[in-house]
Amino acid sequence: MTIRRILMAAAAPVVAIVFSIAISSVVLMIAGTSPLEAWMEMLSYGTRLETLVATANRATPLYLAGIAVAIGFRMNLFNIGVEGQYVLAALLSASVGAAVDLPAALHVALIMLVAMTVGSLFAGVAGYLKVTRGVHEVISTIMLNAVALAAVGYMLRNWLIDDTDTSLNMKTPEIPPSGRFPNLNGVVETFTREITRGRELWGFILVAALVGVLFHLFLTRTRVGYDLRATGLNPFAAEASGVDPKATVMRTMLLSGAVAGLIGLPEVLGDSYKYDLAFTRGLGFTGIAVALVGRNHPAGVAVGALLFAWLDSAAPILDVVGDTPREIVSILQGVVVLSAVVAYEVVNRIRRSQEARDAAYATRQTTAVET
Amino acid sequence: MTAPAVELSGITKRFPGVIANDDVNLSVAEGEIHAVVGENGAGKSTLMKILYGMQAPDEGRMLVGGTEVEFSSPSEAIEHGIGMVHQHFMLADNLTVLENVVLGAEPRRHGLIDRKAARRDLEALGASYGLDLHPDDLVETLEVGERQRVEIIKVLYRGARVLILDEPTAVLVPQEVEELFRNLRELKARGHTIIFIDHKLEEVLAIADTITVLRHGRTVATVDPADVTAHELAELMVGSELPTPSTEPRVADDHVTLSLHDLSVLDGSGRPSLDQVTLDVHRGEIVGVAGVEGNGQSELIEAILGLRQTSGGRLLLDGEDIGSWPVRRRREAGIGYVPEDRHRRGLLLDAPLWENAMLGHQTMAPFARGPFLDRSGARSATARIIEDFDVRTPGIDTSARALSGGNQQKLVIGREMAASPRLLVAAHPTRGIDVGAQAAVWENLRAARREGLAVLLVSADLEELIGLADRLVVMLRGRVVAELDPATTTPRLLGGYMTGAEE
Predict the structure, then answer these.
(1) What CATH number does the domain containing B471 carry?
(2) Which domain does B500 fall in, by range?
(3) Are B263 and B278 in contact (CB under 8 A)?
(4) Strands B335-338 and B423-427
């Protein structure tokens, strides 16, 4: 029973990936290049240590973004505003981090706290609008994304800019070493070889993993998590069971925003130590795709984040070798999302009908025993 | 004699765990108004969906105008001249009447919509059937009765000779009902055949030429309205050969568990849907609430649970005013709830049984410890519920969706009983479940009553009400219009009060 269940759960992503590779191969053939060659190139480049480090670094913020979106999805709330929430949080927490000087652990903790608070409060605006005025969160979060990005530009230029810097790159002052997150190069190198200089495995991956574990425990072990899931599964039954729909909306948005606030920190605390014009944007939207691929489950989202990150990290080789356009990877990612959604639905139907058969069998059996 | 307009024979339709239609036979003559009546869940809607091609029957034959047909979609039914007016209108609010009518069947000229022809056709249709409508009105500005006329014209525009109307009067006020009936008679005079689904007996008797009664998915009778009274129809609908719950000696004491004083609820348009209801339920007492569906019973239950805002009156549980309490506090105070629609209000269909067993009790032992869920406690409590209430399932990790309706209902009842509530609010606890499960539910209710549980029981099954309840109240248009002693009440008498025939 359980083995069958695990196999069924694994079947969907595997089918989705195989299907997307097939589709992309057809696209490549139409474009006149050899798919096999392209995949082999990606595979050999993608398994190098440096690419794997880049994959882990890319996957860390993607995972946080996926979890932030998944928290909302779990109760049928669509937080499209993760994008604005994390960019705003990154700017403000980087600025606060640069302005204070504290002992190391405390310094990092403060920056994280600021980032989570900013993300949470900004997401809370959408929650508040939904609860009090019935504004749909998709509309409000999309609008608030625009507000956040404009506000970030204004604040950076006028208030938070590093005046001592004379280059054209607008940036916030740098966070002192006490506020930086240590890398994990040492750990990796004890098992493998030395990583090429200038590349670091961001330590923030541990925070991301912890967030995933906490999210899982929250959903499955706490009353509030149960209320949230129940609301997502059937809002009417949840309400009748005593769940306050408005409070649940508020809680979910605040929580989703808090996790969203962390998305920019792997980069800020592990690599750039500041917010500048080169700061990575768009992760909030990719997070939606990652959450969809991962079925909003903490482990599934991890698979989705790693898959997307690996494709992003392995793709550049296509520009260097052969004549395969690297954009094929975007097509692959898009098809993965679509086929994952379809594959999950198919697997779900099979599982349901099997369960219904089992239940019908159980009914017959007990009846037979009685008579 | 000409062939009947529609003839269904031996129609059987099964859903997992439920037989919706069981060897149903229906013969509708050309040019008549044929009413199909029955309780909710008797299989009327399924039968009509089959006739309209929305669902395929598992067994049986359909003849339209004497030739055998098989529909795989509504468009095939429309081709054979069968149209359906749904209970919930399917209109685009932001389009005009004209646009709605032609939507999907637009007359074309040179590839564009021929508005002139459309308008001409619509006006001709309206004039010939006396259906009064302005083609350029926006649908969102129309009254309910007018929207229904748009739906009817839509069906006629597509050339329907046979019209199916699914509970057309449910949404109408009395004046609109009269208007509708005038329209229907006009249609009949022009040779159309009308199949009319309803459970308001007075209306059925006023309009129908022939009445077919469904009960538990079977056709039990086809009668001429001239030969029956509303009472007799009600008896046919409810049936009397069912195992009847037997009354037990009264155990209620003087303690009032639930007390309502002038409780009122307003509907969306500000009219009272629950109108100053005053009612007491004592410890160890089952109070039955009878009434035709939609006369305030749902509002009453939801107001007690806290799911619906009250506009006035007081609500006391064991003497304490709970009117301002949120739902959770009321549940924790010991109000158990068996919802009328277990799929909508009672279950998380895609969650395992043990998570369903804690629904509504998720803040209390054995399901929770502090802010955390007590998983092992919840699982063993669920196993006990399944054992004690004979829920037939492969295990507690099976999802609720997989169970049959009867077993789902036993789980819901079991979880409410296992929490030993002070008050149980139960709506149609035996609706749509098989006879065996029904008897088990009755036994559970009686056992709980002996233990001192107060029960408010809303049901459409009059035998069930008379058999189980210590006291009966009848609701009509949001008010309690009668209080009866079940020992001296018959379904016949009850039906009279429910329809307002008895005062």
Answers:
(1) 3.40.50.300
(2) 242-334+422-503
(3) yes
(4) parallel
CB A172 within 8 A of CB A95: yes
The answer to whether B293 and B40 have CB atoms below 8 angstroms apart is yes
Q: With pLDDT > 90 as the criterion, what percentage of chain B qualifies?
A: 38
Q: Residues A77-92: what's their mean pLDDT? A: 95
Q: What residues of chain A have any CB closer than 8 angstroms to a CB in chain B?
A: 220-227, 229-230, 233-234, 236-244, 352, 355-356, 358-363, 366-367
**Cβ proximity of B180 and B169 under 8 Å:** yes
3-class secondary structure, A11? helix
User: Which stretch of DSSP H or E encloses residue A44?
Assistant: helix A35-46
B117, B211: one domain? yes
Closest CA to A226 of B328, B69, B78: B328
Q: Last residue of some domain: B238, B266, B290?
A: B238
Q: Within the 372-401 window of chain B, which residues sit less than 8 Å (CB to CB) from chain A?
A: 372-373, 375, 392-394, 398-399, 401
Token pair 């008379």 in the structure block, residue: B466
Residue from A313, A298, A297, A305 nearest A336 by CA? A305
Task: Give me the CATH topology for the region A34-322.
Answer: ABC transporter involved in vitamin B12 uptake, BtuC (1.10.3470)
pLDDT in tens, B361-398: 999 989 999 999 999 999 999 999 999 888 888 889 99
* B274 within some domain: yes
Name the packing angle between helices B174-189 and B144-157 (round to 10°). 20
Do A362 and B339 make contact, defined as CB atoms within 8 angstroms?
no
